[in-house]
Design a protein that fits this description.
The chain has 393 residues and is α/β, with parallel strands linked by helices. Helices cover 31% and strands 17% of the residues. It has helices at 30-45, 66-72, 88-101, 116-121, 147-162, 166-180, 194-198, 263-274, 291-300, 309-313, 331-334, 342-354, and strands at residues 12-19, 54-56, 78-80, 107-114, 202-204, 207-208, 218-226, 238-247, 283-286, 372-379, 384-392. Strand 5 (202-204) and strand 6 (207-208) form a beta hairpin. Helix 6 (166-180) crosses helix 9 (291-300).
Length: 393
């Protein structure tokens, strides 16, 4: 084991990333996708699996992540099973980085895999209207208050408060699809227009089908390690510079303002701890189960003022060559969305910072690769948020 450089907190880097098979994956089980992702991330890092002493996973097994660790042949001495929806993975990365910095672990593997699409097609599960009917949720479930309806209500409130238009929300989907067109791994790559989005079948007013994320299969993994391991890795490190997390509500009646997401807190904390400003960021990977999530998260992370998200998105500003490239792989709206997508945000952030994104690679004005990225995940119906600022060099 490498020796610790000093008594100061250790720096933490992402040293390995990978995707499992994604999109339409009818054969493998979720466990197989976990194993694919884990093996590929370790291969990407160049490190031996024996260095992994921490493991984080959620969403699979009765005793997640114990069952997944057993399947992978790991016996970690540090473990995390945080499960707060789409924000799970940014929060897990924050916990893992803290543990590594404090010397509680040396290398932590975060892994996710899901066959959400294949399971429905095979009749192994059905679509759920709600997460459950116990506790506080029992007061909403009888009225058919589904998850998508909650996002739709929030979007309508933003439209009422700030004049945000359906066309502006549709632009989020259009630009995500344009990004996906340059991603060979994206599930949907054909161009769409604002009119295509607006004329689609209504799902929950104001969201038509293309305002909503796709349903796919897939998995991915991220390996974090202490700075002492970096000289032995196969790729240049991408450093965890700052993180933030926040939970705000469970029931809609306890949400103070439908136009403010918990990213307003997690983002502020992450930027402060990283010592950077939103204006310094070269690209953003944002959880986008619905178009409104992208818009309001851009506001809450400080890339534009509250109420100005619609205007900010117009004219291609969040496209790959725009002022702030957002969801450069196509996001959950076009690339993949197998469930809790937050870990994919970290994978794409690292890929872009390394300069490994191929045709969809973002470059700065001088032609260089990006230096700073932010990944911000959202869970539930804006119930939780985790934000991670990453940098290279």
């Amino acid at each position: 084991m490498p020796s610790s450089p000093s008594s100061r907190p250790r720096k933490v880097a992402v040293v390995g990333i990978s995707l499992a098979d994604c999109g339409r994956v009818d054969g493998p089980t979720p466990y197989v996708l976990h194993a694919q992702a884990a093996r590929r991330a370790l291969a990407d890092s160049g490190l031996d699996r024996s260095v992994v002493d921490g493991f984080a996973s959620a969403g699979l097994g009765t005793l997640a992540p114990v069952e997944v660790a057993e399947y992978l042949g790991l016996k970690p001495t540090w473990v995390d099973s945080t499960a707060i929806g789409g924000a799970t993975w940014e929060v897990m990365a924050a916990h893992a980085a803290d543990a590594i910095a404090a010397g509680r672990a040396d290398a932590v593997l975060l892994v996710y895999g899901s066959t959400a699409r294949a399971d429905i097609r095979a009749g192994r599960r059905t679509s759920n209207l709600s997460f459950g009917s116990r506790g506080p949720l029992q007061f909403e479930v009888p009225y058919g208050h589904s998850l998508i309806a909650k996002y739709a209500m929030a979007a309508r409130r933003h439209m009422h408060e700030y004049g945000t238009t359906l066309e502006q929300l549709a632009e989020v989907a259009v630009q995500a699809r344009a990004n996906a067109a340059a991603n060979p791994d994206a599930m949907f790559r054909d161009p769409i227009t604002v009119d295509d989005v607006l004329s689609g079948p209504m799902i929950a007013d104001p969201f038509t089908k293309l305002h909503c994320c796709i349903r796919s299969d897939g998995g991915c993994a991220v390996l974090l390690a202490a700075e002492e391991y970096v000289p032995d890795t196969a790729k240049d490190p991408v450093w965890i510079l700052g993180t933030g997390e926040h939970v705000s509500h469970s029931t809609m009646s306890e949400w103070d303002d439908f136009t403010v997401s918990p990213a307003a807190v997690s983002g502020r904390l992450a930027f402060e701890r990283a010592g950077v400003r939103p204006a310094d960021i070269d690209l953003a990977e944002i959880y986008d189960a619905f178009t409104y999530m992208t818009l309001v998260t851009l506001e809450d992370l400080g890339f534009c003022a509250k109420g100005e998200g619609g205007a900010f998105i117009e004219k291609g500003r969040i496209g790959r060559s725009g002022e702030l490239p957002v969801n450069t792989d196509g996001g959950g709206l076009s690339a993949c969305h197998p469930g809790m997508r937050g870990l994919f945000l970290l994978v794409e952030s690292v890929r872009q910072l390394r300069g490994e994104a191929g045709e969809r690679q973002v470059r700065r004005a001088d032609g260089s690769f990006p230096e700073l990225a932010v990944a911000s995940g959202t869970g539930g119906w804006f119930c939780s948020s985790g934000t991670v600022v990453l940098g290279r060099g």
